[in-house]
Amino acid sequence: MKLILAEYINSLKEDGELDKVIQDILRANGVEMFSKPERGRQYGVDIYAVGKDFTDDGKKKVFLITVKQGDLDRQNWNGEINSVRQSLDDIREVFIPNNLAPQHKKLPIKIVVAYNGLIKQSMQQNWKGYTSQYTNLDFALWEGDFLVEQFQHNLLNESGFSNKLRSAVRKTIIHLENRDYQFGDFVQVLDMLEEEFKTTKFKKTKLRVLKEMRLLVAVVIKYCDEADNLLHAVKCSEKYVLRLWSMFISGKPEKEFSKEVVEGFYLHRDTLEKYNAKFSFIVDIKDGLGRSVGDALSYGTVVYEQLGIWCETGLFYLQMYEFLTTGEAENAQQAAMIYRERATILAYEAIRLVNNNQIFYTPRYDDHLIEIHMLLMLLYKLGLKQQAIDILFGLHKHIAEAYSFSRIFPVHRDLRTVAELEANTDVRIGYDYNSSYLFTVLVEWSIVVNSPRLYSSLLGVKDKLLKEITLLLWFPDKETEIKIYTENANNDSGYALSGIELCKSMPEYKELVEEEYDYNCFEKEFSFIKESYWAIGLIASRHFRTHVFPHYWRKFLKDEVQNI
Asked: Which residues contact 372 (CB under 8 A, 6 or more apart)?
């Protein structure tokens, strides 16, 4: 474990990674942050903290920490504008005289250079020579080995880890370069930590387990990045957030536990952002997602997977937007608008993604209704109603044409059949598609966007072209929430409403849907819906392929304010 941590610490970038670890180490030792890292001129200080000196005499001190990446050598000592020496001079000459809070001016000051490498032997004399000139100040070097020790003993209590858990972490990291890795070892890590969380009666132990889980997941995600496999990072992050919520609701939701849930959300947000930043260029390339695959089925699968991650990110931003708009924190409204703007950018990127990859409009698999829901929800919640209508008309048109001319239609939950139909035209021509969830979804969304023309067109396709196809819609039941955090809940919970008949007019059908929503909506009582963490259910749907709950779109029929 120590070798894994050493590699992890050594790989961290200065901004947003190494500085976060150092803040966690300080908090774990009872040192409070007075100001956090920020971009721009900081006069040498990356972290300003106050607390007892846990490395020396235990006295209360001001910690002024400058964070650097890599080894401490001649180049970064005095070779550039942001060199270590320049930072130390700025702290002494500018920050201390001008930026210390009044209540801290009489406290002893400890200036720390924290870095994730080693100090070169040739630099030790330079360090001693510099620090010996200023006897009124306390100086310290926190090198990589020191950070690893602190990380291990304060953030990851390895002595409490079983050999089985340590082995599972190592196996996870080893397999991350395998594109087909199924995350069995990673799930085992989550299982063991969840078991410890649920069996202990002590609040402090539960909190420690939550913190250890977050940090272990951060380590795994960092290794995914190093292996150039951010898709694995997204999947690990999704598994973690879902398991975290499951653990959180299993006991009394303590305030400290809530903070860990929020920190987990931030980790997931950062992972999604990193993924989207890497692949955002591809949304503007015509058939860009089809250039690395050799057949239409694989192409469509890749398009829907990428679209799902894009929409999950946008919806996650809207989740954060809603949190902040209802909160009372300083600058909350400004931060909320930033999240909304980011969600809007992603929504337009998602539109360009589907329009530059037209295979989106002829889904081969009924399961793709999950990504279709997420895209339409993202657009609708942002007030992009016309764009949602355009997407729906495009799907309606292409699905009808594909069935008429090529007998291509979304297959219900059987990937082998999908592959066989794609490969064999004769089999496809004679195939009985039997039923469809996806077509039902399109009909219900035509009601949500209030488009009688779209409803009428879909009704015509059903009556004239799809007479033999039974319309289905899946509903969760009281047992569903137990399962969604770890598996596809469609298999052993909920039920499918079969034989759905479409009314001749949209108002009639809308009335039926609204009535059903009023009397049949178990998911309203699910923890993440009641606590307004609605993004949890969508993450579960994308990750484990559980159908999106009808509540997510039917609620729009009832909401007075439909756009945010």
From this structure: 363, 395, 438, 441, 442
Euclidean distance between CA atoms 472 and 550, whole angstroms: 12
Mean pLDDT of the chain: 90
Task: Tell me how far apart the alpha carbons of residues 377 and 343 are, in angstroms, rounded to a whole number.
Answer: 12
Crossing angle of helices 203-226 and 255-279, rounded to 10°: 10
What one-character-per-residue DSSP string does 497-511 give? E-S----SSHHHHHH
- Strands (DSSP E) contained in 362-492 are 435-436, 470-471, 473-475
User: Which residue in 25, 23, 79, 68 sits closest to 48, CA to CA?
Assistant: 23
Chain centroid to CA 194: 20
Calculate the alpha carbon distances from 300 to 290, 355, 423 in Å.
Answer: 8, 13, 14
Nearest to 21 by CA among 84, 114, 117: 114
Nearest C-alpha neighbor of 2 from the set 185, 194, 150, 107:
150
pLDDT in tens, 229-259: 999 999 999 999 999 999 988 766 677 788 8
User: Which H or E run contains 115?
Assistant: strand 109-115
For the chain, how far is it from start to end, CA to CA, in angstroms?
A: 46
Neighbouring C-beta atoms of residue 386, cutoff 10 Å: 11
Segment among 127-141, 197-211, 343-357 with least mean pLDDT: 197-211
* Residue 166 to residues 1, 34, 99, 136, 280, Cα–Cα distance (Å): 7, 35, 44, 45, 36
Cα distances (angstroms) measured from residue 296 to each of 254, 379, 391, 425: 49, 26, 20, 13
Q: What is the pLDDT of residue 161?
A: 64
Angle between helices 369-381 and 535-544 (to 10 degrees): 150
SS3 state at 100: coil
How far is the C-alpha of 432 from the C-alpha of 468, rounded, in Å?
Answer: 8
What region, left, alpha or beta, does residue 227 occupy, with left being phi > 0 and alpha being psi -120 to 50 degrees? alpha
**Number of CB atoms found within 10 A of residue 142's CB:** 18
Given a cut of 70, whether residue 394 has pLDDT beyond it is yes
pLDDT grade, residue 160 (50/70/90)?
low
Residue 163 has pLDDT above 50, yes or no: yes
Check the CA dihedral 134-137-143-146 and report its sign. Answer: positive
pLDDT value at position 133? Answer: 93
**Bridging pattern class, strands 470-471 and 473-475:** unpaired
Given a cut of 60, whether residue 539 has pLDDT beyond it is yes
What DSSP string runs through 333-356? HHHHHHHHHHHHHHHHHHHHHHHS
